[in-house]
Amino acid sequence: MTFAANGSSPAPKIDTLANLLNSCASATAGGKACSGLFSATATPGETPENTLDASLNLVRNPAQNVAALYALASSSSAFTPALAKQPSDWTLFINYTGGGMNSPTSLGVDSAGNVWVASSETLSAPNSVVGVASLFSPLGAPLFARGITGSGLGYSFGLAVDTNNNAWITNWPSPWAAGNTLSVFNSSGASVAGSSGYSTGAYTYPNGVAIDTDGSAWVADWGDSELTHLSSSGQELSGSPYSSSQLIDPFVAAIDAGHNVWVSNEGGTTITRVTQDGSQFTSYDCCNDPEGLAIDQSGNVWVANFDGDSISEISSSGAVLSNGGYTSASLVDPDGIAIDGAGTVWISNYRGPSLTELAGSTASAPGTILSPAGGLGSDAGLLEAYALAIDASGNLWVSNKGSNTLTQFIGLSAPVRTPQIGPSVAP
Question: Which domain holds residue 223?
Fold first, then answer.
């Protein structure tokens, strides 16, 4: 494997971790350094007995015993340059550029581990200005140097990957393109939705898109507060868009195990559950400018409250378990939200330079903040972190709208099956 030329990693942090392991492996260090390493990386009921297990525990619990581990690492100087001071945590990350990204927004991971990225701004091309979608390999290399263009792409905010590894991307209009379309691309970069994308639903500023297990797609039409249900081939299953006074600037959609679609209403304080046939709309007052929305393995719905700097939780039956009650100093305009294979909840903070981690619904205390007060990955250079996605290796990917970068946090979360269709599940 070759490190992607478009990637940058924190060499001093990596060297410090190498010194930490070297302090145990070195013959001059003796058993004391090893016992310190194993003790500092122990988890409830398990104390590592070798450096491999210690390393895995450290990656999965990067905020644990940071000071003690840094002190152990300082006893070795085999690798340089090392950190001059203690880090906030031990998260390992790589920042990627290129692939045509321009103010990247939503993400999706396909079954091969490739990462699709939508962009909300335009890309200059020969004799034109065009919308762009990007595709990166599991190692972060752009598979299309300047991205994919045309076929209805505009200002793109929503993205979902189907079981055929096709990326469905919603497009707002722009001065140079009609927009209000849904583009669909296969992994070769070819359009599956014709030269102009799907426009069957007559969308107005379509934002969120979600794929059901039957292959159909739901589009949250932000501009006119409607929902459109499409077949896998782009035919409008709803006959006409579903509308209700309960929908208020629908932002993101997610689908539960019963084929109900849940929508966050950015313009209000509710989320809405809609039955598959569009006959029933049920709203729950739970939130404050809700944006990101995700469904866990138990069917509970987790919502990022952008204006409330908080997270809400609603049960599968609609009981409001937390009305914006999960808070942390690191939650600053939370936007993206994802559930990993263990049910842990991860949040990207649009106005905060870090990630927030919460205990999931099966934990003894759901909603407990597991990350430190300053969040995780504060040294990763996150800037306007818009969305996040988890792959089948447990890597967590974040789009940085403010810096045109894609950040990969190595092994930080529990693996999930990709592409994610319906609630998050382990591989």
Answer: 93-409
